[in-house]
Each structure stands twice: as structure tokens, then as C-alpha cells.
Amino acid sequence: MQSHVQEGGWIAKVITDISGSYAYFQRGFVTYSNEAKHDMLGVSKNTLYKYGCY
Q: Tens digits of per-residue pLDDT, 5-54?
């Protein structure tokens, strides 16, 4: 069984293996901690408290 991190990277790999994918796939993030979701992606602390993994 693959870890979630491997699966997240695999999804980006499959998408970017398609020729021309740069036109619709600008970047990808695999974030698991609420801290990373808040700091790097700007998810509000209220949203993380309500739906996150606290």
C-alpha cells in the first residue's frame, strides 16, 4: 500500500506526463498538517478548526 504522500506525488506525475499539461496544471501541493495548509495555502484557522485534523 502506498503512502498518501506517494499518491499525491503520483497524481501530479500522471497529469504532467500528458503533453501540453502545462496549459492547465500550474503547480501542486501535498499538505497534511494544518500548519502547512494555513501557512502555505492560506486556509483560515477557523476552517481548519472546523474541518481540519485538530
A: 457 688 889 999 999 999 999 988 888 889 999 999 999 999 999 988 76
C-alpha cell at 47: 476552517
Cell of 27: 503547480
Q: How far apart are CA 32 and CA 8, in angstroms?
A: 11
DSSP 15-48: HHTSTTGGGT--------SHHHHHHHH---HHHH
Distance of CA 41 to the CA centre of its chain: 9
